[in-house]
Amino acid sequence: MKAVLIGGTWAIDGVWWRPGSPFAREAERIGVEIAAGRGGGFVWSTKLEIWRPRTLGADAWTGAAHHLLTFIDAYCGGQADVIAHSHGGNVAAIAAHLDRLENALYPPGHRDYPPRIRRLTTVGTPVRWGMSEVYRDARRMTASWRHIYSTADRWQIFGTLGTWNLWKSRKMKFARENVLEPGRRHSELLAPRLWTERGWWPVSSLK
């Protein structure tokens, strides 16, 4: 099973999510195959958005979510694990939501329509007020969802401002597992050695 790495807001020029980065190399050393398309890893605009459920399809996050589903179909055989940082986690959650809408006639996990995102790991993802339906679908459509957060991560709090509401919760109540990593700043949650020490890589009996 391949894994798709998704950067967060303003990470278009970032490095960690690209195949061949220190993060990706450590993942592959552990046994995680990183997905790569024609232009490398999964790329989206990384724009900061006010997500509007009533205008689904009109914002950068929804466009990126559609692109993620297409990327998984084209380069991952129709299903992948996803590791997403910051608002990249909200893009992944919206993708799971869209996946459910596309297959609304079938229950999650139906053998003819397996969910595109098998295991989801969100890292320092801001918990957006008003996205409960999306998060609920992300839980329904994934076999597992681990949310990693830190009390020292200020960007996770500032990232909620796009809804005009400062949402102070760093925990993701819809995730199946919340992991507190105290003292780590936003980008420090992506330290490859930390992932290996904590056993966060998506390698398990689900492989």
Share of residues in strands: 5-15%
Give the number of helices. Answer: 6
Number of strands: 6
| Total tally of structural domains | 1
List unreliable stretches of 5+ residues.
Answer: 162-167
How are the strands of the biggest sheet laid out side by side? 2-1-3-4-5-6
Do you know the CATH architecture? 3-Layer(aba) Sandwich
Which overall shape is indicated by the principal axes computed on the Cα atoms? globular
Instruction: Supply the helix-strand structural class.
Output: alpha/beta
Quickly name the level 1 CATH class. Alpha Beta
Q: Could you list some keywords that capture this structure?
A:
207 residues; alpha/beta; Rossmann fold; 6-stranded parallel β-sheet; 6 helices; 30% helix
What can you see in these coordinates?
The chain is 30% helix and 14% strand. The protein has 207 residues and is an alpha/beta fold. A six-stranded parallel beta sheet has the order 2-1-3-4-5-6, sandwiched between helices. Strand 5 (144-149), helix 5 (154-158) and strand 6 (177-180) form a beta-alpha-beta unit. The longest helix is centred in the N-terminal third of the chain and has 16 residues, at 60-75.
